[in-house]
Design a protein that fits this description.
heterodimer; A: about 140 residues; mainly alpha; about 65% helix; B: about 140 residues; Rossmann fold; 5-stranded parallel beta sheet; 5 helices; globular
Chain lengths: ~140, ~140
C-alpha cells in the first residue's frame, strides 16, 4: 500500500484555509498549463470554471477580513495575507475564466498573467518578499 | 518524446460526506484526467451504483462514511473487483493499518493537497510507457 500526504504526527482535519490554498494552487497550475499550451478538454474547462468561481468567492470574503485586520490588528490566524494579495487572486480567477471560455489572451495579457502568477506564488511561498530575506544574499 | 496516455475512458468515483473536501478532490481529478468524475456522499449509495452500473477504475473515499464505511466498502470492492484501485483518506493515524488490512491500494493522510492527488493519477491512471525495444537499435 502506498502512502501519500502528511506525516502521522501532523495529521488533522482539513480546514477551509487548507482548501482555499489547495484550490489556489490548483488554479495556478491550471494557468501555467494554459500558458504552456497544454490541451484543454471539456471537463478541464468545466473544472477551471468551477475552481475559479469558488476561489473568487473565498478571496472576496478573505479580502474583507484582511482589510478589517489592517484596521483592527486582530489576529486572524494563519491567513494573514495583505489585501492586495486577494485582489491579485481575484484577477487570476477572472483571467482563468477568460481562457477557460476560449478567449484568446493577447501578448500583453499573457505577460500580465505571468506576472500575476509570479506574485501569487511568491506570496504563498514567502510571507516576506524575497528581496527582504537578507540572509539569502550571503552564501 | 513519447505521447503520454491515460487509461481509456477512465472512470473515477469520489465518496465523502464533507462537500468542501469532496468538491476539491473532484475538481483536481476532473482537471487531471479530463473526464467526468462520479460523486457520492455515502458508502451505501456508491455501492448500489457500482453493483448496478459497474465498478470504476478508481475509488477515492473517506474512511468515515455513513451506512457503509470506507474500510467495509474497500473489502466489498476488492472481493468482487480486485482490479479497482482504492485510495482511502483519513485524519486519524490509526486508520493507516486498518486501510492496509482491508486491501486499500493507497492511504492518503489528511491534510493533503493537489500534489498528492496528482501523484495518485500519475501512479494509477497514466498508462505505463512501453518497454524499450532494444532489437530496433541493433
Amino acid at each position: 500500500m502506498l502512502r501519500f500526504g502528511t506525516k502521522p504526527e501532523f495529521m488533522r482535519e482539513m480546514e477551509l484555509d487548507d482548501i482555499f490554498l489547495s484550490r489556489l494552487q490548483l488554479l495556478v497550475i491550471m494557468a501555467k498549463a494554459y500558458l504552456n499550451q497544454y490541451p484543454l478538454g471539456e471537463f478541464r474547462q468545466r473544472s477551471i470554471l468551477e475552481n475559479a468561481a469558488l476561489v473568487q468567492i473565498d478571496s472576496e470574503g478573505l479580502a474583507e477580513e484582511a482589510v478589517a485586520w489592517e484596521k483592527d490588528k486582530t489576529d486572524l490566524g494563519s491567513m494573514d495575507f495583505e489585501p492586495v494579495f486577494y485582489h491579485r487572486v481575484k484577477l487570476l480567477t477572472v483571467m482563468a475564466e477568460a481562457f477557460a471560455k476560449g478567449h484568446t489572451l493577447e501578448d500583453h495579457k499573457r505577460e500580465a498573467l505571468e506576472q500575476n502568477l509570479e506574485s501569487i506564488c511568491e506570496a504563498i511561498t514567502f510571507r516576506k518578499k524575497l528581496s527582504e530575506m537578507q540572509f539569502l544574499k550571503v552564501a | 518524446m513519447r505521447e503520454v496516455a491515460i487509461i481509456d475512458n477512465v472512470k473515477i468515483a469520489v465518496i465523502d460526506e464533507d462537500v468542501v473536501v469532496r468538491d476539491f478532490v473532484v475538481s483536481t481529478l476532473m482537471y487531471s484526467v479530463n473526464r467526468n468524475v462520479l460523486t457520492f456522499d455515502n458508502g451505501f449509495d456508491a455501492w448500489i451504483y457500482f453493483e448496478e452500473s459497474g465498478f470504476p477504475d478508481m475509488v477515492v473515499a473517506d474512511i468515515n462514511l455513513r451506512e457503509i464505511d470506507g474500510l467495509t466498502l474497500t473489502s466489498k470492492i476488492k472481493q468482487i473487483q480486485p482490479k479497482t484501485i482504492v485510495a482511502l483518506f483519513s485524519d486519524a493515524p490509526h486508520n493507516e493499518n486498518a486501510a492496509r488490512e482491508h486491501g486499500a491500494d493507497v492511504f492518503m493522510a489528511k491534510p493533503f493537497g493537489v500534489n498528492e492527488l496528482f501523484n495518485l493519477v500519475q501512479t494509477f491512471v497514466v498508462e505505463p510507457e512501453p518497454a524499450e525495444d532494444d532489437s530496433s537499435e541493433s
